[in-house]
Amino acid sequence: DGEVMEVSSTFLMTTKNSGLLVDGIDFLVRENGFDAVLAFIRRLNDLAAIHSATVILWANKSSMPEDEFTKVANEFDETHDYL
To answer: Which residues 6+ apart lie within 8 Å of 25 measured at CB?
Structure first.
């Protein structure tokens, strides 16, 4: 929770059919812990589903443990590997 969640949720709730890009997931995990970031991602995805929005999350696969990356990837309908 916090300011990022407040700003993100306000945006998703007031802007229908929008998109939200989350970058720097590895930094968020270092600063807040993996479980807190995973909960944040789940809340964003829930809000996005309710408000017809799309969440795009960029993650550097090599900067995260494989099991954590898999848990994050499992929260999304689609994943793409561009590297």
So the answer is: 37, 57, 58, 59, 60, 64, 72
Nearest C-alpha neighbor of 61 from the set 73, 69, 50: 69
Helix (H, G, I), strand (E, B) or coil at 54: strand
Residue pair 43/5 in contact (Cβ under 8 Å)? The answer is yes
* Residue 32: φ, ψ to 5°: -120, -10
Length of the chain: 83
pLDDT of residue 1: 63
**19: left (phi > 0), else alpha (psi -120 to 50), else beta?**
beta
Q: CA nearest 55: which of 75, 34, 35?
A: 75
pTM (2 d.p.): 0.86
CB distance 45 to 76 below 8 Å: yes
Q: Which regions in the chain score pLDDT beneath 50? A: none
